[in-house]
Design a protein that fits this description.
Elements lengths: L11 H14 L46 E9 L10 E5 L25 E5 L5 E7 L10 E8 L2 E10 L3 H6 L1 H4 L4 H5 L2 E2 L2 E2 L8 E8 L4 H4 L1
Parallel strand pairs: 1-9, 6-7
Antiparallel strand pairs: 1-4, 2-3, 2-5, 5-6, 8-9
């Protein structure tokens, strides 16, 4: 089983897309005091069998030419420590359901309608600035949960964070979600929200979103 982990010098075309997405979505300078990204439950559907392809492009599976169904979304971001220093060489994993609500898991709902062209899971090794990039689909809701993307950040054998990122535009659905409501601090909640925006030069309606993930490391631990 392949366990490819892509770093910024791999898949040049994706790296170029990431730069364009980041330029469009990256916010201003960080405040002096960074807010640690709140942890969220892993949930029951972390893949019980990883795909043969675990790279950062969830749209194209292996050597298939048929893309996954859904709105193509470029997710860029950085992993930082609590002092704002980049966390280099950390593995960022994401997983989410396909456009029909099915996860890459044997007990997921809608398995009979699973999109076989959606990878459902990906990994990326952060670069010198702590940056990461994924090409995926706009997350969708399924019974009981608002749209979200699961995220795990690891460094070496240590898991630094398990969390979930939500669509900022789905305000009503988010407010009804038990996991999201557990985060009481509005500023901490805001770190879990993704602002999906249309990419101006895209001819197929692609979206871009940017996330800053802050883990509870000291600068020494970050190194």
């Amino acid at each position: 089983m392949s366990k490819k982990i892509f770093s910024p010098d791999r898949r040049l075309f994706l790296g170029q897309m990431a730069l364009g997405a980041a330029a469009f979505t990256t916010p201003g300078l960080f405040a002096e005091e960074l807010i640690k990204t709140p942890p969220q439950g892993e949930g029951p559907f972390y893949p019980d069998k990883l795909p043969l392809d675990t790279d950062n492009d969830l749209i194209i599976l292996n050597k298939n030419i048929t893309p996954a169904v859904g709105t193509i979304t470029h997710l860029t971001g950085k992993v930082l420590d609590i002092k704002g220093n980049p966390v280099r060489n950390a593995v960022v994993e994401i997983w989410q359901c396909d456009s029909g609500g099915a996860y890459l898991h044997s007990k997921s709902g809608n398995k009979d309608k699973e999109d076989k062209n959606f990878q459902g899971f990906g990994r990326f090794l952060t670069g010198l600035k702590g940056e990461f990039y994924f090409r995926t689909i706009l997350p969708v809701s399924y019974p009981g949960r608002p749209p979200h993307i699961h995220v795990i950040v690891k460094k070496g054998k240590k898991r630094l964070l398990t969390t979930q990122l939500y669509n900022k535009a789905e305000k009503k659905a988010n407010e009804k979600d038990g996991l999201f409501r557990r985060v009481k601090d509005p500023k901490a909640r805001a770190t879990l929200l993704l602002d999906f925006k249309k990419m101006p030069k895209s001819k197929i309606g692609e979206l871009a979103a940017n996330a800053t993930i802050v883990v509870g490391l000291t600068p020494d631990e970050g190194e």
